[in-house]
Specification:
The complex is a heterodimer of chains A (257) and B (207).
Chain A: E1 6-14, E2 17-22, E3 25-31, H1 33-43, E4 48-52, H2 60-71, E5 78-81, H3 87-96, E6 100-103, H4 105-109, H5 113-121, E7 126-134, E8 142-146, E9 151-156, H6 157-165, E10 173-178, H7 190-199, E11 204-207, H8 213-221, E12 227-230, H9 232-235, H10 241-250
Parallel strand pairs in A: 1-4, 1-12, 4-5, 5-6, 6-7, 7-10, 10-11, 11-12
Antiparallel strand pairs in A: 1-2, 2-3, 7-8, 8-9
Helix pairs in contact in A: 1-2, 2-3, 6-7, 8-10
Chain B: E1 3-7, H1 14-24, E2 29-33, H2 36-41, E3 44-47, H3 53-62, H4 66-75, E4 78-81, H5 83-86, E5 89-92, E6 98-99, E7 104-110, E8 120-128, E9 142-148, E10 150-154, E11 160-165, E12 169-176, E13 179-182, H6 190-201
Parallel strand pairs in B: 1-2, 1-3, 3-4, 4-13, 5-7
Antiparallel strand pairs in B: 5-6, 7-10, 8-9, 8-11, 11-12, 12-13
Classes of the chains: A alpha/beta (257), B alpha/beta (207).
Chain lengths: 257, 207
């Protein structure tokens, strides 16, 4: 094997700024997205993910301009998620310089959306984003939630991941977030990551819970993830991407150094 | 001022390709086009492509671009990227069988179903199998970013310029006269990718 496992810093963007809070509360400013993106690129990030957490439509244009500016200066894959619902939204982001788009709740409202977008743009640029929560009293069962983890859907996360990635017109990648672990910084949901990684044949990005460098390695070694996504541990200077890579390399994981 | 035409037939991340060229060659005239006359007149041609091969071939035909591609491949520095590599071959297994441009003999095959994830996505090593001006200042086995489910199998082994391993050793770069084509995405491969694009911009195919 020579394909490297990826480290993907995630930038939650609101009103043109990178922000981070614990489950949408206690939001802290983490800088200008263009500057933050350039810093992670220099540190050796393998990709960057931007989640637009702006609610209003007008502010979406801000995100388009941010992506345009970053794509002029940062030459690694860029994924954009948040509020992408139609082919038109995908086209706008790809034209701005994004390489992939992450589709979350829109796929739940319209289960044929992923297929339609893959057909139009190629499955390599369609990422299915899944926000899952443990089902109380049922081990190894996770349910998909929307609206920042507030609204249950009754959909089984593992089954949904399989359904959304099946065949030539499925999504090319899964961005899997544990709503239980997100922002808690106590490690990824390894059982969830493992269950989804095992069930699908496309790469899986583990998200939600990174609090230290050992957590990143565990998501790959125990969770079977192909990539790890993290935000807070990088944003506030706790670790650099380079330090994270060195730690993963030390634990026997192949990374791009 | 030299001109670089990026063939734009509606398939793929042409804007990323354009931005990367603008970065490495700020003084060149870099433009996206589907006009075969402009492509013919350009000093250099870049042929990107993403998505499914069947859809790409169809789009090329709709834009009446197959002839100009075949001409330019023989006449000026020409860089194929991703589907822009696969389309040069005779035939692909994709979409129940799709004919290519038949510029390079061989076919395009899907990665076998095994323990490895498909698509092959991420940063993998590129082994140089020949010396070439486009490998200038790029280390052997440097990592480039790829995303694809199919790979090319050239009948003519002389054209193979680079190999990557993903369960199988597959051809990730080919070179023939003024043609160079890669499976990976130099426009998304940071320093080494930009170096390759820079090498292409400065490539003197008359040497």
């Amino acid at each position: 094997m020579s394909l490297a496992k990826r480290i993907i810093p995630c930038l939650d963007v609101r009103d043109g700024r990178v922000v981070k809070g614990v489950q949408f509360v206690d939001i802290k400013d983490a800088g200008d997205p263009v500057e933050v993106a350039k810093r992670y690129d220099l540190e050796g990030a393998d990709e960057l993910t931007f989640l637009d957490i702006t609610a209003s439509h007008e502010d979406r244009n801000t995100m388009v301009h941010i992506v345009e500016e970053i794509a002029k200066q940062v030459f690694i894959p860029l994924t954009v998620g948040g509020g992408i619902r139609r082919a038109k939204d995908v086209r706008t982001m790809l034209n701005a310089g994004a390489d992939k788009v992450a589709i979350n709740s829109a796929a739940i409202h319209n289960p044929n959306l992923i297929k339609a977008l893959s057909e139009k743009f190629g499955s390599q640029c369609i990422v299915i984003a899944i926000d899952a929560k443990k089902t109380p009293a049922k081990p190894n069962r996770w349910e998909i939630f929307t609206h920042g983890g507030r609204k249950p859907t009754g959909i089984d996360a593992v089954k949904w991941a399989v359904k959304m990635t099946q065949g030539e017109l499925g999504a090319g990648e899964v961005l899997l977030t544990s709503m239980d672990c997100d922002g808690v910084r106590d490690g990824f949901d390894l059982a969830l990551t493992h269950a989804v990684s095992n069930a699908v044949n496309v790469p899986v990005i583990a998200s939600g819970g990174a609090g230290n460098l050992a957590h990143l390695s565990a998501a790959i070694l125990s969770g079977g993830a192909d990539a790890v996504l993290a935000a807070s541990i990088f944003h506030f200077g706790q670790y650099s991407v380079a330090e994270a890579k060195a730690a993963m390399h030390k634990s026997g994981i192949e990374v791009r150094l | 001022m030299q001109s670089i035409a990026i063939v734009n037939y509606g398939m793929g991340n042409v804007h990323s390709v354009q931005k990367a060229f603008e970065y490495v060659a700020p003084n060149a005239h870099i433009f996206l086009t589907d006009d075969s006359r402009l492509i013919n007149d350009a000093d250099r041609v870049v042929f990107p492509g993403q998505g499914a091969m069947g859809a790409c071939m169809q789009a090329l035909k709709q834009h009446s671009l197959t002839e100009v591609i075949k001409t330019c491949v023989n006449e000026k520095p020409f860089l194929g990227i991703c589907l822009g590599l696969q389309l040069l071959f005779d035939y692909s297994e994709e979409n129940g069988g799709t004919s290519g441009l038949s510029i390079i003999p061989g076919k395009v095959t899907r990665f076998a179903k095994n323990a490895l994830k498909i698509p092959h996505m991420g940063w993998n090593r590129v082994k140089h199998t020949i010396n070439h001006p486009l490998w200038h200042n790029i280390d052997d086995n440097a990592r480039f970013y790829s995303v694809h489910s199919y790979y090319v199998e050239s009948l003519d082994k002389v054209v193979v310029a680079g190999v990557t391993n993903y369960g199988v050793d597959f051809t990730c770069a080919i070179a023939k006269d003024n043609l160079f084509a890669v499976q990976f995405h130099p426009e998304k491969s940071q320093h080494d990718g930009l170096q390759l694009l820079n090498n292409f911009v400065n490539w003197n195919t008359n040497d």
